[in-house]
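In this supplementary section we document a worked example of the pipeline. Step one takes a protein sequence of length 979 as its only input; no multiple sequence alignment statistics are reported here. Step two produces a three-dimensional model, which step three serialises into structure tokens for compact storage. The input and output of this example are shown verbatim.
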Amino acid sequence: MKKAKNILLSGIMATTLTACGGGGGGPGAVSTVTNFVQDDLSSLTGSESIISSYSSLLSGFNSSISSGNIANLSAIITGPTDEDIEKAGSLLTMLDQAESLWSQTIDLIESQDSDTKLQIYNSEDYKNAHAAVLYLKNHVKPVIQKVSKGQKLSLTEYNKVASDKKAEEIIKQEKESTVETYVVDQKTKIDAEKQKKLVKKEEDTKEETKKEETKEEDTKEVVKEEKKEVVKEEKKEVVKEEKKEVVKTPGHEFRTTEFKNDTGKIMINADKAYLRGWTGKGAVLGVIDTWQDIDHPELDGKYEWYKNYTRYDDTVDNGGNTQYHGTHVAGIIAAKKDNIGTHGVAYDSNLVGANVDYYGKGMISKGSAQSALHDMAKLKSPISEGGQEMNIIAVNLSFNSPQVFTDRNGSTVTQLSDGTYNAIEITNKIDGNGYGDAKYWKVATDSDIILVNSAGNTGHDHAGEPGIWAVEKDQDGNLVLGGKMVIVGSWTGTGVSGNKAGHVCLDINTTNNTCNDTTRISDFYILAPGQDINSTVPVGLASTNYMTSSGTSMAAPHVTGAFGVLHQMWPYMKGENLVKLVMNTADKSLIGYDVNIHGQGLLDLDEATKPQGAIGIVTTGRVDHPHTILIQDTYFSTGTSLPSDLSGLKIMVLDDYDRNYYMDIGSSFVVQDNRKYSDVELLVNNQNNFLPQNQMYGLFSQGGQWQLDKNYHFGLYTGENGNGDYSVNAGKDIFITDKFKLKTSLSHMSEQETWLGNSSDGALAVGDNNDTNSANIGIDYQLGNNVLSFDYNVSKTNINTVDNSLIKNFSNVETKSYRLAYEIHKDKHNTLGWSFSLPSHITSGTMDLEVAESVNLDGTINYTNIASDLTQTTMEKNIGFFYSHNAKHETDASFNFTAEYRQDIAGQNGKDGVNLGINYVKKFWGACGFLIWKNQKCLNPDGSQKNIQKLINDKADSPNHKHGLRYDLKLDMFVPIEK
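The serialised model returned by step three reads:
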């Protein structure tokens, strides 16, 4: 059997690697782990628990990659789709689980004796398997994380997960480096341990010989002391192992021996909720059942209130049989987590209890149960109303009355033509009174107490009573119990035991023999583990104070405990929403799932503690207020370095059930390089009007600069696609001397949906018409034929905000830029130079945000204010060089070359790059020979063709192309030297 289970494990691990390794992650990634599991791991004692953990991973991977392996995410190179992102998120969860299970495998190996460990570490199968896991962790996982964030992948990154050849290459590298080093270290430690044990053994032998020479009394004393020391060492080892489990197996630290003693909690994924910090603390859960041992070590101190409603206040029925049912149910709900026996689903919750045993015969008195509910409702009521304000969330009713489905004449339930059921006792009750029995249980649900009722064990296709009253409606069509009655069936692991989820009709259409009910029992029917559930029993009943029992009575308390866990997470949630939550998140992936058998599926605390539905950012004062902004609509893209307050921004969000979660939305914010052209490009194109706003910000796609005369210039630019963005500037050049020019300009930039090129929306939306006013001053100084220039720009930006945005205000947003350049004019046709610049960057300013921080018990929201400093701590630095050649004559080529080193691009520390550019233009001189009749320049006055070569030479020899010119700063050109 063990061998078979380990073969299953190998298959699951193979699936893991196939899913995460693209085209299989390489045959080595699959086969190596398979070989290791089959040949090495299967022989180790204790491997079964790890195998069972792997079994839950298989179905998840099959679901996540049902359309194929990750190589199918082909769109990620050009940008992940929503489907890619969702699939990547699922695969990340699987990768975390696989990583965690490998940690458990290492722990298992480390628990073996020295010789066994050496044998494993010397195994090639182990080394290959370890390398395959490192491939997943160090190479596949980072790639999948990028996809999950919507980021593009390079071809190199894509090949890591999609190329078998690349996967095998990486695995080999990991084996030869990391794994071999690890193995050598482990073997060194093992050898040291063996040597230490050998020395200890020799010392013990000498000590033992010495002891034999002592008196008998002393020998007894020594033996006694040795025994004490053994116990002490064993305790140390236990603590060490427990600590190891917590530290080395993230995601499984709650899978203690105490947890594993009850397979029910494993089946409902309770440990996932525990891992997230939810254990039922603060919740009070009720048990209305048979007698409960409130002094049981697992329950002692748990009960805030307990009352006996029977005439007998003892622990046995009148036949002498000890009653265990109520104690067993209470333990499933809330038994302590104390490393003894087993613990409850909501082990940090407290209890209120009632003994309603029918005269000590193990039968529940319905009247007593209803009296107990009245008292519990009063306990929950405010002190001002005579109550105690106990936080009672749910009450467990592990009893039912199957006899209600047989009328007094012995007739049975019949099936209607639509598959629902007609129970004569039920219809007679409604037809005779106009209402059913929901009113008897209403006192609890009116106090927002959820009733959790076992479906019954009689094997009917429908639930028993009182659960069937969950669907009764009043004359206005509202549920009498407000959607707060839950019916729980028993799941054995393979099927349903006991009563199923079929519907008992309350309103029958006698014309066509069908049911008029629009709400069905299956809407409130959920499955929970009910087979061989280990829990507490009264002290003295069993040798260990624990025993296993089966039935829907054991299934129901799992759901009751789950409500306690969920309440701790969201104490302001109303009972009807808690019920909807567990129903909608139940696992329906059961073999042969049928709503009339399985209801809403199997209770799943993993899914129930995750966000559900649309995730929104709350922008108003209450969780139940409709004004939330969907998280997927929120983004922030900047052309400058991201403020530190935003890069780590964590905010509170709400899901479809108004539950609050905390999400890091800052990790999704991106810095984009919005620069349209560089400073060195401005120089090579002789664009001396320095406009850093147009250069770095905005969406300007058309427009230009015009020289009005030799001293004045004007510019106008408009946005792309007519979006309303525009920029206008005007400037004047003032010549102090012929060789010293002062440059001045003013500009106004208006952005409709952005600010300084920053794009944001959703909860970080800003208003329209965001204006930037700037002033520029610069100098040009001529040195011979060369020009040294310096430009400085300062800007102020006014940004508008909108309602329902986290951004409440901007203040003092200022940007600056600097450029130093030197141009060498060799002659009229050749120019070269360099520039050093600090492009526009934010030098001051704050962005004030109001972020939801927490929720009060009454559903009101607390906010915190964040004054985000927009000042860029890292500025981009550019160093550029250019060379430009203008054509000397018609057949000469024009070209320019630019090279630029960009450091800390867009303010991103450590992101550097080099930009190279070349432009080459050469005219085609063929018109005179091919299109002579169209080009009069090629003809002499008499119509004969000119000598083309002589024409070219004449142009080249003209005075304007010879040396002996000087550069004129005012004209920005070479002129003849005056003699």
